[in-house]
Amino acid sequence: MLSSVTSTQVISYAIIDPIISQNVNLKFSKIDKKKNFDQSYKTLWGYFEQEIKWNNVILLGVMHLYTLKIFLMLRPEIWHLIVWGLFCGSIGGFGVTAGVHRYFTHRCFKANLPLRIILMLAFSSSGQNTIYDWVRDHRVHHKFSETDADPHNAKRGFFFAHCGWLMLKKHPDVVTKGKIVDCSDLLNDPVVLFQQRYFLPLKLLFCFVIPVIIPVYFWGWEVGGCIDAAIGKWVLLLNCTWSVNSVAHLWGTKPYNKEISPVESRTVSFLSMGEGWHNYHHTFPWDYKAAELSYSWNITTFFIDVFAKMGWAYDLRQPSLDLVERVARKAGDGSHFKWGHNVVEEHE
Ligand SMILES: [Zn+2]
Ligand SMILES: [Zn+2]
Description:
- The protein is mostly helical.
- 55% of the residues lie in helices and 2% in strands.
- The chain contains 16 helices and four strands.
- α4 packs across α6.
- It is globular and about 60 Å long.
- The model is unreliable at 1-37, 46-50 and 344-348 (pLDDT under 50).
- One zinc ion is lined by residues 141, 249, 262, 278, 282.
């Protein structure tokens, strides 16, 4: 991959991706072919040697306990904080779904500079990773789904696929395969490089500081409540995003390809603004709708269409209806609402 980029890009690449430049100790032990994962890397509760990331375990643990406290104390009179939290969380969600997922990872559409900046800032407000790391992990996930190289391999169980993978050091296969997945397009995007350079200030500013400052300064709301709303929406959005990797890889139907693990999940689509039609998405990853239908629990598609009407998003990609039909008839499990030959019970 590096041979196809310029020397400036190689330097940016080394700065941008310390994981690749470091000398990784590749110790492969026996692979269990049947379960398709290295038995020395089971789950957080199995045998894990020294690969636990304790900082993430503590951070996520404490933040989830704090969010639990926030939810236990919810009262109707703080509805304004709930609405504000949901509004801010939705902006972050749009940054994840339309931004880092459909635009930066899959290039399902093209975007002008203002829209790219909006997507980057919206994604920064989600309080997740750098665009580069997120995209690399997700491209590896698509290319090596349900193998050791999949960062959140659902074969290792719900907890690992949901958030356990963030609490353990990466499996060696994830690191090695991460090196061969082409991410050179990101190095040519100044918006991505800017977010990489100012990752932490952007994350803190847009995910936590601004959602607190706006209501305190303009509407005189109490600081403590606004901090709770900011933390609550962050943790909630993390779980909505994670549910695509866990629930939408475990429980649902497979109308487009029965040979793969990703499934269709209405619940996850509702929670993740349209990302739960995952059997379709893994079959046609370049479709900007990430689903066959435009607006079935898919508010992200609606917003991309709005930007397309403005001319800010263009060259929206999607397969022909004929191709989708042929694939569904040939490879699906028969549960397709139009072209299915049997009805498969939804395990949701
Ligand atoms: Zn997936
Ligand atoms: Zn994807």
